[in-house]
């Protein structure tokens, strides 16, 4: 959330505090970026913001803060029928950090209740590839504030939640557009850290993929087939999880965790119709690259008769050893090179 006014005696912070209170029940984390506290100088970078090369620490800090947000809500007054110069400057200083983020507004003012400032800001936001939402809160100060505070009103609180829900909804569907991961082996694939809302779809993909394993190994007694959504959610406390979407559809996933000096990789899966294009190898390489400091080797397990998986891991440089009657364990020293790089599963 961005508080745009900076002048001494401003009402902006009181409006921001009201907004935070009104949306307190919503499942979001709010970072209040108060432009008065941040004190961004007027654009003072020698390079064009689209280069992303910043010489000043204040710009880098602003870049990190905006980068970390999935969505933006601006609390802005109207000054002379437009947005405050501080807000325009905060936009102008960065570029790609804003892209594909939904933006909602709480505008306030006298006669026009901040609506002209908001219209102007929306126009600027679209140049930065932001996605303005329709829901807006427009506060006419004389009617909605008293003694420098927003007057309590259930309708106003509901309007604030309306803005928040709309930006949250748009933030979910635009997430693949915001990903800046390395391009994948095929068009339209985006690799991200799995989030809570990915897990139901991930569980369906997991079951689908492990049916093949069940057939190959002639057993239904496989943990990935039995796992419930509750268990999958709980696994997030010990495992890091990644997923790959292709044009929005979840088509691959994997997880990993530290186990002593090993980086234990598991549940590498690719939707059957997407196999053979190098997606599994690419995802595996990405997961390996996330191994923490101190990792000496990568380790994973698969079914003894899961020949396609074993081939993929051998191509990636893993050595196979029997683990038990049903499964094999595969290891690879952390810094060894893959043996081959042709597309696999
Ligand atoms: C320089 C300036 C210009 C203003 N112009 C407008 C305006 O065009 N329309 C409006 O409705 N209110 C206008 N106002 C009134 C502000 O909306 C009101 O003072 C509000 O409290 C400003 O927000 P702030 O206290 O957070 O700075 C203006 C106020 C200032 C200081």
TrEMBL record:
Entries under CDD domains matching the protein: NAT_SF (cd04301)
Region (Disordered) residue spans: 324-345
N-acetyltransferase domain span: 189-335
Domain of life of the source: Bacteria
Coiled-coil residues: none
InterPro entries according to UniProt: Acyl_CoA_acyltransferase, Flavoprotein-like_sf, FMN_Rdtase-like_dom, GNAT_dom, NAD(P)H-dep_reductase
PANTHER family, per the entry: CHROMATE REDUCTASE, NAD(P)H-DEPENDENT FMN REDUCTASE LOT6
UniProt name for this protein: Bifunctional NAD(P)H-dependent oxidoreductase/GNAT family N-acetyltransferase
Organism: Allokutzneria multivorans
Top-level taxonomy: Bacteria, Bacillati, Actinomycetota, Actinomycetes, Pseudonocardiales
